[in-house]
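Explain this one:

_____
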Amino acid sequence: MKKINFSNILIFVLLLVLSFLFLIPIITVVINSFKDQFFISQTPFVLPNSNTFAGLENYIKGIADTGFIAAFFWSLFITVCSVAAIVLFTAMTAWYITRVKTRFNSILYYLFVFSMIVPFQMVMFTMSKIANVLKLDNPIGLVFIYLGFGAGLSVFIFSGFVKSIPLSLEEAAIIDGCNTLQSFIYVVFPMLKPTAITVAILNTMWIWNDYLLPYLVIGSDYKTIPIAVQYLKGGYGSVDMGAMMAMLVLSIVPVIVFYLSCQKYIIKGVTAGAVKG
C-alpha cells in the first residue's frame, strides 16, 4: 500500500488556499461589474440577484464614458510595439555582450543590471522633460522609452540563456555561409524562444497595466486603458464603481488570455536565464 505523504498534502492545501486568496480580488471585480452601483458598496462579496443585477449596463456606460475602444487600441499598439522592440533588441544586445568579451561590454552589462534597481520615481520628472524636448511625447516615442526601461531585466535574462548555447553552433553556421547577423537570426534566436516568450509575458503585463509612464509622457492626448479608467472619477472624489469594475474586467481579460496561453514557458525561461553560465 502506498504511503501517504502528509507534507505534500499540507503543501497542496496551503497552495490551494493561497491561490484562492489571490483570485478573490479578480472574482470580486467580475461579480461587482454586473451589479447596480448602489449595491456594490453595500454587498461587495455577494453574488448578483434579481434586485442587484444590472446586466451589461455598466459595460455600456463605461465604454461610452471612457472612450474605451480608442484606449484599447492605443494600449494594444503601444504594448505590441514596445514588447516586440524589447524582445528583439535586448536579445541581440545580450548575445553581443555575452559573445564579445571586452571590458566595455562587461561595464555595459553591469549598467543594465544596475538599471533594474533604480526606482522609476527617481527619474520620472527628468525623463518626462527629456521626452518633451526630444519630441517623444507620443505613442511612438513612448515605445522607445519603454525599450529603455525594459532593457535591464530583459538583457539580464537573455544573457543567462545565451551562455548555455554552444558557440560551435554559431561557428558551424558561419562555415556554412551565414554572416554574423544571419547566425543570430537563424541559429541563436530560435533557441531563445522560451526566454523570449518569458520576457514578452513579463513586459506585456507591465506595459499593458502601466499608468504612470503614459500619464507623464502622453497624458490624455492618447489615452491608454489605465488612463481612460481614471476618467470615471467625478468631482469631489465620486466614482462610478459599476462602470469602473466593468472596465477593469475588460482591461484584464486580454492580458490573462495572453498569460494563460504562454505561461508554460515562464518557469522554463526564467530558470534558464537565471542559473545558466
The domain at 60-275 is CATH 1.10.3720.10 (MetI-like fold). The CA atoms of residues 96 and 105 lie 8 Å apart. The chain has one domain: 60-275.
